[in-house]
Structure formats: structure tokens, C-alpha cells
Give the backbone structure.
Amino acid sequence: MHQVSVDLADRSYSVLVAEGILSQAGSLILQAGLSGKAAIISDSNVVPIYATALQDALNVAGITSTVHEFPAGEASKSLIVANQLCSSLAAAGHDRKSFVIALGGGVVGDLAGFVASMFYRGIPFVQIPTTIVSLVDSSVGGKTGVNIPEGKNLVGAFHQPRLVLVDPHMLRSLHPREFYEGFAEAIKHAAIRDADMLDDLAALDPESRDVPAALIARNIAIKARVVEADEYETLGIRALLNFGHTIGHGIEASLPYGEMLHGEAISLGIRAALFLSVSHSTLSQAEADRILDLLEKFHLPLVLSPQIATQTIMDKLSRDKKFASGQIRFVLLDRAGSAHVSSIVQASDLLHAIEHLRSPRC
């Protein structure tokens, strides 16, 4: 079992990574100091596959649980569904002594964590991620929230989990498109903090579902160290995790939620950020191409559809929470494995980068 500690004083917790760890969920949750009734929040894709196995593992440990299901997809990450889930928990007899288990991908984790942050003014929660995006990124760090028409994740709260359980075996149940999209976040981690990981990712077979637990733990450790240094994103360190996300979120929000998967939009955002890193920082074109090769290897998009208007993307990203007092804070690479937050990128540069995405990669 690989263990990554997230050290945040009295909010510290462990991320445990091992094949088959789902069957040990009950005992590990007890060891983390949680007790009471569990509210398993999951979506319509995951419940039929894993909810019974999780409840069985909880029963063995003497933990009573209820399952609260919502329709799968980004469209469910809303205040309406959050309110419905809170009502469902109350109707099932949950109270301030209960805890939430988020069983699913990034949407489930963000939504369930947000519900946990609000219900009875905040109850503990556990993350059991089932997608690569959630394994290597969104399950760690305590960012929870929902979308509103004006943009992604504009309503939410910082609410750290008490425990994260990662079972790489669960990746085998993913649809190929969902499997591939998660590697955008892993490639992002390598690009901003660990250039050697680019080689490790390049060595993987995209058609295989065998992702080494050690590689997952290495990704999680990158996220953990950044979160420890800047939990509430006030020092500019955690903002480095937004590499590829400013334009990526703008693209994702320009379509009906869920039409483009998060990692697919981030892949386009990474291509745009690499373009600006070459023109506005010290990243070489050769290093940019190395990262683009990886995105292509995992079947991630690099060309923006002509159906998505540039002005729509600009309107969406201008409302993004990554803008401070209207100023653009854009993450650029100095070189592979090293990033910084820049204030020199202007709106005209963003327009240029978006238009660059419309051309095939040379």
C-alpha cells in the first residue's frame, strides 16, 4: 500500500493507494477516527458497479450506510442537485454525527464534498475516487463546489476530506474516453513539477488499464505538496495547478455542461498555455512538443471545434475565479517541470492562443 500524507495541521489526512483497497474501506475509515452513519453519495454510472461492494465493506466494520444517487454528468454539479442531496440525507436520518463518502469521479467528489461542507454546517467526508481525474487531482486538496451558468466551480467551499482511498483496479470499469481524459491532469502535474514523469507517462500503454499505483501516488504527492504550501490559494503557489485551466475552463463552459469532458478541455487549454509559454516565457518548442506528444498519445484533443466561438470562450474565462480583480493570472512554463504565475499575458494574447487552437498541430 502506498501512503501519501497531506499535512494541514488539524486537517491533515492520508491518501492510501492499493489494488483492492475498496474491500478494506470500512476498517480504514474506522482507523481514520470516523464513526456514525455513512451517506454514500454517487452517480448513476457508479452506483450499479461499486455501491454494493462498498456497503458490504462498511457492514463488515459495523458501519451503517445509505446510498444517495444522482444522474451522472457535469450538469448535475449544481445548486439544485446539492439541495436535493441535502434533503435526501435529512430524510434518511443523517445528522451532525454522520459522514459522507464520495464514491465516483470529479463531479461526485466536488458535489458530495460541497454537500458535506453544508449539511449540519459541515460534517466529515471520505473520498473514494473512481476516475483518473479524481484519483490524481480533484480528490485531494479540499476544493468542493458546483457550477452556475456564469462559470465552473464559482460556488463552493474549502472542505478537506478525512481520508482518501484510491483503488487502481476501479479504472478498469471506465469507458475509454473517460479513461483517457484523466491523463490531461497527470500530464499537467509532470509539466509543472516533475519533468521525469513525462518519460514515465510516455512509457505507459494507453490501451492498457494497468496504471501503476506508484505512479498514481507520485501524482497525488505533487498535488499534496502544493496544497500544503498554499491551501487556500492565497500565495500564488496553488495557482500553478491551474496550468491549462484558464482557457480550458473557458472552452468547457462554452458548451452545455458535460458535452466536452474536463480533461478534453484541459488538453486544449494546455496546448494554448504551451503556445504562450513559448512566446512569453522560456519554454523551448522542443519541450512543448514533448508535452503535446503525450496529449496525442492519450487520444486527447488538440484542435478546437469551429463551432465554439472565440468571444464565447473569452466571455466565460473572464468570469473565471482565476482572475484577480479583473487581472489575468496565467500559468506559464519556464521549462518542463517548472512553472510560474505570470501577469504579463494580456487579453489579446489569450485571443491569439485560442485562434492557435483552430489550426492542426504541425
